[in-house]
Amino acid sequence: MLFVFEKIVFSMAALRFLSSTIEFTAALLMLRYNSVETAFRINALLAMVGPAVMITVTSLGLIGLAGKVPMQGMVFIAAGVVLIFIGMSKM
Length: 91
What we know:
There is one protein chain. It is built from 3 helices and no strands. By secondary structure, it is an all-alpha fold. α2 (36-65) runs antiparallel to α3.
């Protein structure tokens, strides 16, 4: 059986798969080193990966939607993403 995926959808899924692999590897490293200090450092590195992946996947999604969604819809989607990051920074 042959599966044909849209390039954008495949790229979005691949990035999420890579992100989950990084997170799973980090969890294994935390268990391996069995140290709160090391686990804290690993977690700090993960804090950079999550937002980068989210921005990249969202950007790919917006590129894929270009031409299919009216400009006003694209502005609302982009504004929603900005509001998510503003909300996260206020925590």
